[in-house]
Design brief:
The longest helix has 50 residues. Strands 1-7-6-5-4-2-3 form a 7-stranded mixed sheet, with helices on both faces. Strands 8-9-12-11-10 form a 5-stranded mixed sheet, covered by helices on one side. It has 17 helices and 12 strands. 45% of the residues lie in helices and 12% in strands. By secondary structure, it is an alpha/beta fold. The structure holds pyridoxal-5'-phosphate. The site of pyridoxal-5'-phosphate has 16 residues, from α6 and α7. Belongs to the trans-sulfuration enzymes family.
Length: 466
């Protein structure tokens, strides 16, 4: 149709000439031009039909190759989804193009400037003020979004900063359905801060779909879930919960994907609206940055959160963005090692007489092992176990560790151990802890990248002293 328009304009041009050349010439030329136009129209129809045919041919070929890929997805040797190709290539290249910098730097530079020169008033070159946007942050946000197969990414000064910004989308009188087993800080934020803003929160066992259905109210605006949950490692069916929530227009489903990282689980592909991260953990993986992020495909949600990122000002430093961007380059390698180390440890603990029960989604004994295999590309280095006895035994065990460090947090290259009831989850009310099973005998491990034999030997000698 574009060709036709061009010819019509041409025709009009030519039609003007006879005023100079005379009536006869005008008629002959007009007839010739009409013929040419008809031939062109016929040609363009033939070409467009040809293109349509080729497009369909490619579409069918592509669809069958992606369905082959989808079928191949459950075929990885450990039973978990097998990784589609390209994750590490994206982690290394998306957003990093050297040609975006005058220097052609291969490693994106750290841009510390808080303000950016404008060509004229209001005519900036993409950046105005460091809170509203920064080149180093921009590189990271683009890379993070691509790893979750998302269109938009935003980063924040901490994981809880990302959560706060997401909650700030809500209004007085809105209702949140949250998982009952969340990071203690998220529980505290929802219970003590969101409630004071007039936002209602219900903590629900999201592994029970009947309870999920029943929890929805006319004013429900947000679903907040972690999977696997913290510290009990329950696995929530993201697709099923998203489908139930989305039967009610206006509900945004958020998944805190901190425990698995975008390498091991991609919630947007499963129907969630927003993925949230404490980048502090696996995504950075070196225990030297506090930062958070969110990724979405929903442009309206992104625009709202981008506005709030600037308006509330919960932004990260360019130096930290540089560090996390660097860390993503080895995410796949690190997660593979966390995966193999933690499974070996889970198997060892399961056979130890001083261990009552091991919670690890990679073990067939885990209640949602089959769901974990359907939904994720594997398990990370986080696991929990119940030591026989109570506070005395768990404290003796934790104090006797040498290679594992007794500390809060998780997801770094170093192995950590902690007691959730006293440490990370002390802010969860005692009654909720008791109902959930966060007892003084529940120990959480973040298995790092050390040699696995050294880790097992360390656990063995500490259990002997428990
Ligand atoms: C699952 C999970 N989500 C969110 C957070 C909060 O992140 P940050 O410490 O970066 O604020 C944490 C912190 O431990 C966490 O474990």
């Amino acid at each position: 149709s574009k060709i036709c328009v061009v010819r019509t304009v041409d025709l009009e041009d030519r039609a003007r000439r006879p005023r100079v050349a005379g009536h006869l010439i005008l008629r002959r030329r007009t007839r010739r031009t009409w013929c040419a136009a008809r031939v062109l129209v016929a040609l363009s129809v033939a070409v467009s039909e040809c293109c349509y045919f080729l497009f369909n041919l490619f579409k069918t070929a592509f669809a069958s190759s992606s369905s082959r890929e989808a079928m191949a997805q459950s075929n990885s040797s450990d039973g978990f989804l097998s990784q589609p190709k390209g994750f590490s290539t994206k982690a290394i290249h998306v957003g990093q193009d050297p040609e975006q910098w005058n220097s052609m730097a291969v490693v994106p530079p750290i841009s510390m400037s808080t303000t950016f020169k404008q060509h004229g008033p209001g005519q900036h070159a993409g950046f105005e003020y460091g809170r509203s946007g920064n080149p180093t942050r921009d590189v990271l946000e683009r890379c993070i979004a691509s790893l979750d197969n998302g269109r938009f990414g935003l980063t924040f000064s901490s994981g809880l900063g990302a959560t706060t910004t997401i909650i700030t989308m809500l209004q007085n009188g809105d209702h949140i359905v949250a998982g009952d087993d969340l990071y203690g800080g998220t529980n505290r934020l929802l219970r003590n801060v969101a409630l004071k803003m007039g936002i209602e929160v219900d903590f629900v066992d999201l592994t029970n779909m009947q309870l999920v259905e029943q929890a929805i109210k006319p004013n429900t605006r947000l679903f907040w879930m972690e999977t696997p949950t913290n510290p009990l490692l329950k696995v929530v069916d993201i697709r099923a919960v998203s489908e139930i929530a989305h039967k009610h227009p206006g509900i945004v489903v958020v998944v805190d994907n901190t425990f698995l990282s975008s390498y091991l689980q991609r919630p947007l592909d499963l129907g969630a609206d927003v993925v949230m991260y404490s980048l502090t953990k696996y995504m950075n993986g070196h225990s030297d940055v506090i930062m958070g992020a969110m990724v979405t495909n929903d442009e309206a949600v992104y625009e709202r959160l981008k506005y709030l990122q600037n308006a509330a000002g919960i932004v990260p430093s360019p130096f930290d963005c540089y560090l996390v961007n660097r860390s993503l380059k080895t995410l796949a390698l690190r997660m593979e090692r966390h995966k193999s180390n933690s499974l070996a440890i889970a198997r060892f603990l399961e056979t130890h007489p001083k261990v009552e029960r091991v919670l690890h989604p990679g073990l067939p004994s885990h209640p949602q092992h089959e769901l974990a295999k359907r939904q994720t590309y594997g398990h990370s280095g986080i696991m929990s176990f119940y030591i026989r006895g109570g506070l005395e035994e768990s404290s003796n065990f934790l104090k006797a560790l040498h290679v594992f460090t007794l500390a809060e947090s998780l997801g770094g290259y170093e192995s950590l151990a902690e007691l959730p009831s006293v440490m990370t989850h002390a802010s969860v009310p005692l009654q909720q802890r008791q109902e959930l099973g966060i007892t003084d005998g529940l120990v959480r491990l973040s298995v790092g990248l050390e040699d696995v034999d050294d880790l097992i030997a360390d656990l063995k000698q500490a259990l002997d002293k428990a």
